[in-house]
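FAQ

Q: What does a record look like?
A: Structure on top, sequence underneath. For example:
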């Protein structure tokens, strides 16, 4: 594996990268500086940071790179570093003549410096807008098709005018077939251009929504776990749904109307040509329309339901706690509260729907009114013989091509506001620091049991609560088995999670083989270390699928052995030794916590990692399962560094060292005290002897 000290990046490549990023001044400075001709990745990283270039350092992953905006630096494990960029769904690299060439395939192994933001931008660049720009190739066809459909849309009014003025007025019925044929052709072009445009808009908005969801998902995966758990699952899901909202606005029926809005100018020009100053009537009416609808919208928005969230929470509570509610039999209080929210929800929604209805009716009336005023004003022009009767009829028909999109624009105002807030949310979200904003290129030694050192670890989950860890300091020798014990809530789980970097302590640090944990690539480290949590999470699928999440290439035999070693032989028999048994066919809630514990432990054992961390591995086990696990532990002792939490007396005796915690602090760390081998369950008696 590459280390930041070993691999080199040529200075010339960096200069070219800065040039490609448009940072020509910086490129010149680097050229003139006394920087060596070959610099390490670490120095490259520092140099980019020094020039305020925002970047993420990650393993090469096509799905990440497909969403990049700027050129990036590819640092393959084998071969020379490259400047590359995304070109639609392929990649290009910059050759020595500074020409972009197709990159046949991305290197499998190595790192990439993804450039996220550039310095000296006077105005903050919206990540949303930058990604939207990727769809620019669709702009032109959409523009021309919209223009074509707007022009051919004039066919029916002009046809009507020609029939009225020439065929009826001019008594020339023989020209009727020619006019009708022309109108028919225009209509065919109109319909086809609309269909093609709808297809293009649907394709591009779907691609855009897919990119947004992909980026949001990747971003979520790369965010520190502390941030993820603080924000909560539902808001993450809402973020992914934002992409869906944007797609539905652009591709939905309202989207087409919004695209047509600028083309209403064609209808104005047509009225101007047909009826001269009569065009002032629709212009004036449109201004009036705007003022009235603005006030109407304000009136409607004032009635936006505020209880929806509370009501939704009630429904969620019901879904989650139905069993408890039924079991307790005490549903009156809950029912009263639910009914109150449901009633209020109905009342607010009724009021909102009423105002929306009024809004739509006023908009429609304004459209009619505009047409009527135009007709009445136009009559004088006809009587004056300034325009023909056919032209007046055509103008009245054209009015609808103006008021229609205007009505739609007002109806879509809410959706446009929603898009605006989605864009802001997305941009803020993309600015959140990820685990990959730091250069973490080290990877742990895969073979040997590591030593661990925890130095002054301090962690508070929130500013209001007492620290869960407070200045924790102790060492673990390579191959040592350490039991962390202490009363409930004393910080055992938090300690394990911090020791393997799942959560970051606010102060203090952890070293593994004397290297700070923060130097390790977070992904590689997590794949390397084996961790078994108390609450196991499962993905829909078979037992084998869920076990192979830990080791994708494990054989069936290895999966079964890991389950047996974890003490889960009974679970295997209950599933008729069938690794393909679907864990969810039994219903997730029916899956017992202990059974889940076997799978979680088996996953950790499958990794055969020299670092094994387990949170209460044998809680509530039957004696047979406990013995099986203790046998496994005995086999691993010495060759693996093992860290576990437990309340189990017997298991503690198998540790080389115990660490006793109380209220987030270490009260004892050392061998099991010989004068007190019976460490009581909550270690209270041990505490008294200290
Ligand atoms: N995600 C979290 N957010 C806020 N507080 C938390 C969180 N997780 C744990 N805590 C709090 O931190 C303290 C330590 O919790 P922790 O789970 O580490 O204790 P523990 O010793 O493992 O407990 P147990 O023996 O019950 O598993 C407790 O007061 C707990 O309420």
């Amino acid at each position: 594996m590459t280390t930041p000290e070993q691999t080199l990046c040529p200075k010339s490549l960096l200069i070219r990268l800065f040039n490609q990023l448009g940072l020509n001044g910086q490129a010149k400075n680097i050229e003139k500086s006394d920087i060596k001709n070959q610099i390490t990745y670490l120095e490259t990283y520092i140099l980019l940071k020094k020039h305020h270039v925002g970047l993420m350092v990650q393993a090469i992953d096509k799905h990440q790179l497909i969403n990049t905006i700027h050129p990036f630096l590819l640092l393959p494990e084998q071969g020379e570093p490259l400047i590359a960029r995304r070109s639609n769904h392929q990649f290009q690299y910059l050759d020595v003549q500074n020409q972009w060439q197709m990159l046949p395939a991305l290197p499998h192994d190595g790192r990439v410096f993804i450039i996220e933001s550039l310095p000296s931008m006077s105005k903050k660049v919206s990540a949303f807008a930058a990604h939207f720009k990727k769809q620019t190739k669709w702009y032109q066809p959409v523009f021309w098709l919209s223009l074509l459909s707007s022009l051919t849309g004039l066919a029916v009014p002009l046809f009507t005018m020609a029939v009225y003025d020439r065929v009826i007025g001019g008594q020339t019925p023989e020209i009727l077939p020619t006019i009708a044929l022309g109108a028919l052709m225009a209509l065919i072009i109109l319909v086809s251009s609309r269909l093609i445009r709808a297809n293009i808009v649907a394709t591009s908005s779907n691609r855009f929504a897919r990119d947004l969801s992909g980026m949001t998902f990747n971003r979520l995966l790369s965010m520190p776990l502390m941030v993820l758990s603080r924000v909560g699952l539902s808001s993450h899901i809402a973020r992914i749904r934002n992409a869906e909202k944007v797609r539905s606005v652009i591709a939905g029926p309202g989207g087409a109307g919004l695209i047509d809005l600028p083309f209403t100018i064609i209808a104005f020009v047509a009225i101007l040509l047909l009826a001269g100053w009569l065009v002032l009537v629709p212009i004036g009416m449109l201004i009036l329309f705007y003022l009235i609808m603005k006030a109407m919208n304000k009136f409607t928005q004032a009635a936006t339901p505020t209880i929806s969230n509370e009501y939704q929470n009630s429904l969620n509570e019901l879904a989650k706690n139905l069993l408890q509610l039924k079991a307790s039999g005490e549903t009156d209080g809950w029912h009263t509260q639910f009914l109150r929210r449901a009633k209020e929800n109905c009342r607010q929604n009724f009021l909102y729907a009423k105002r929306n209805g009024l809004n739509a009716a006023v908009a429609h009336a304004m459209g009619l009114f505009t047409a009527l005023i135009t007709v009445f004003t136009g009559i004088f022009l006809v009587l004056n013989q300034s325009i023909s009767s056919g032209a007046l009829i055509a103008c009245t028909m054209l009015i609808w091509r103006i008021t229609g999109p205007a009505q739609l624009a007002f109806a879509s105002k809410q959706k446009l506001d929603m898009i605006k807030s989605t864009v802001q949310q997305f941009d803020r979200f993309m600015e959140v620091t990820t685990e990959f904003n730091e250069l973490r290129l080290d990877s742990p030694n895969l073979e040997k049991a590591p030593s661990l050192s925890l130095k002054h670890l301090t962690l508070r989950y929130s500013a209001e609560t007492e620290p869960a860890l407070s200045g924790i300091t102790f060492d673990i020798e390579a191959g040592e088995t350490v039991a962390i014990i202490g009363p409930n809530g004393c910080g055992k789980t938090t300690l394990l999670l911090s020791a393997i970097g799942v959560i970051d302590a606010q102060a203090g640090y952890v070293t593994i083989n004397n290297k700070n944990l923060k130097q390790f690539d977070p992904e590689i480290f997590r794949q390397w270390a084996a961790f078994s949590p108390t609450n196991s999470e499962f993905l829909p699928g078979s037992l084998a699928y869920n076990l192979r999440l830990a080791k994708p290439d494990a054989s069936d035999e290895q999966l079964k052995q890991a389950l047996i070693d974890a003490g889960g032989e009974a679970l295997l028999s209950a599933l008729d030794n069938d690794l393909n048994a679907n864990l969810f066919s039994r219903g997730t809630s029916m899956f017992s916590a202990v059974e889940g514990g076997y799978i979680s432990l088996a996953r950790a054992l499958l990794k055969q990692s020299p670092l094994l961390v387990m949170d209460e591995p044998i809680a509530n086990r039957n004696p047979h399962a406990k013995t099986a696990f203790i046998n496994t532990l005995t086999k691993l002792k010495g060759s693996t560094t093992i860290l576990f939490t437990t309340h189990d007396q017997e298991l503690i005796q198998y540790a080389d060292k115990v660490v006793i915690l109380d209220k987030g602090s270490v009260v004892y760390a050392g061998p099991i005290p010989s004068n007190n081998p019976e460490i009581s369950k909550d270690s209270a008696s041990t505490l008294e002897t200290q």
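Q: Is there anything notable about this one?
A: The pocket of adenosine-5'-triphosphate is lined by residues 229, 461, 468, 486, 488-494 (CB under 6 Å).
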